[in-house]
Amino acid sequence: MTQSHDLVVVGGGPAGYAAALYGAAAGLDVGLVEEHRIGGTCLHVGCIPAKELLETASVLRTVRGASAFGVGTGDAEPTVDLVVSQQRKQGVIDQLVKGLGSLLSGRNVTVYDGTGRLGVDHTVTVQSRSDGGSTLVQADHVILATGSSPRTIGGFEVDGELVVTSDELLSITEVPGRVAVIGGGAIGCEFASMLSDLGSAVTLLEALPEILVGCDADVAKTVRRSFRKRRIDVHTGVSVSGHEPAAGATTVSYGSGADPAAEQVEVDLVVMAVGRWPRGDSAGLVGTRVVVDDRGFIQVDDRLRTGEPGVYAVGDVISTPQLAHVGFAEGMFAVRDLLGESPAPLDPETVPWCIYSHPEVAFAGMTEEAARAAGHEVVVSSHRFAGNGRAMIVGDTEGLVKVVAEVGPDGRAGRILGVHLVGPWVTEQLGQAYLAVNWEATVDDVAAHIQPHPTLSELFGEAVLSLTGRSLHG
Ligand code: NAD
Known about the structure:
Elements: E1 2-10, H1 14-25, E2 30-34, H2 40-45, H3 47-64, H4 82-106, E3 110-118, E4 123-128, E5 134-144, E6 148-150, E7 163-164, H5 166-169, E8 178-182, H6 186-198, E9 201-206, H7 217-229, E10 233-236, E11 239-246, E12 249-255, E13 263-267, E14 269-272, E15 276-278, E16 311-313, H8 324-338, E17 353-355, E18 360-365, H9 368-373, E19 378-384, H10 389-394, E20 400-407, E21 413-423, H11 430-438, H12 443-447, H13 458-466
Parallel strand pairs: 1-2, 1-5, 2-3, 5-16, 7-14, 8-9, 8-14, 9-10
Antiparallel strand pairs: 3-4, 4-5, 6-15, 11-12, 12-13, 17-18, 18-21, 19-20, 20-21
Helix pairs in contact: 1-8, 3-4, 3-6
Nicotinamide-adenine-dinucleotide is lined by residues 153, 182-188, 190, 205-208, 213, 239-240, 273-276, 322-323, 353-356.
């Protein structure tokens, strides 16, 4: 028998479950197909477990620095028990999964446990994981949200012991002694930071000339300087050629230019953080006009519609920033579009970014370099946390806030094009900066507002205020 719905969503990660919840909230009868666990990468092997373990690292760092506040641990060095941390991590995940399950059942979303394959006429065949049986699910609209998986490179077979991806690293129960992290993007920098705080000796190998591609140059430089101070050995502009295991460890070869094996580093663990593959072809698609490009992304237009009428694709499986919150936004967008509400297309250039390394990074909008390259005449204001009272109080003064504004017709700083933060708790401070960029606010609009004092976030207000030509503290 064929099950029928208004909407069927294939993939239960953030993009997929957002589409299902939002669609159900809009009154649609929704089916949601998931082959592993509802919550997807974000909840099980991505954002949530990574941030939980980064928090463990942060607590350890705080305890190590406690004596400066007169808070003692006696003569004992603080230690970390990752078994306990993993239990705590799993507790957080389980609670979130339970909450998600309640939300889905509360909105009468039918969850199909199995692998979904889209065929002709909006029909999804769901093959059950438990008994192998098939169910046919048909819907007026289909949203594909099949996500991504960690990318690997030749010469580094993932064995879960010496070579791991984020999937395995997030379950470690012992701190590795020496680690090579390959890739200096968001994942690589978060893991390098976390492992270093936990006590590993970390080597970070990045192919591009700088870590954190896409971030403002001043921000990337600040993170790099901080990593250097913490003895994270960062090598940029290098490629890795392979590794040679011996006696429970392995030697990674890397180099720049003509000789990619010029240098070696012996480590106990190699962490691959070289991007994620979209899982474009995992949902069948036989007999449909859905197109998967040669990188594995499902092709969509600016309304997230695939080549098959009534079929959308959202989340990591399309070529937009691979971020859970972008997935949420795309899931909701697709639902609004299929309801005929004509939402304004999402702009991938102005989405919020948050990287939870120490120091943290957060930004929205154009970097100074990108704004100039796009032909804008810009004016920039940078303010350092070193002069911020709250940063001194919490004992974390590394970092800055940088505001990039367009010069208006009157020659004064006008519209805010980008805001770039690096430093303490900046992932929690991005909100007003994100709104300023996406509301297309001017410097004068923002400078008129009061910033609470003493806060870390008043540094953003200060940076904007100084662009008016007058300032208080900077
Ligand atoms: P990424 O693409 O951001 O970074 C991968 C890095 O690896 C790049 O800098 C690339 O130059 C480098 N690289 C690739 N091949 C290499 C090689 N052979 N040798 C050395 N370096 C090599 O990917 P990621 O950091 O793995 O993250 C995957 C996705 O998940 C990204 O879209 C990322 O934005 C997203 N993500 C975001 C966050 C966050 O924002 N906090 C956290 C985790 C993941």
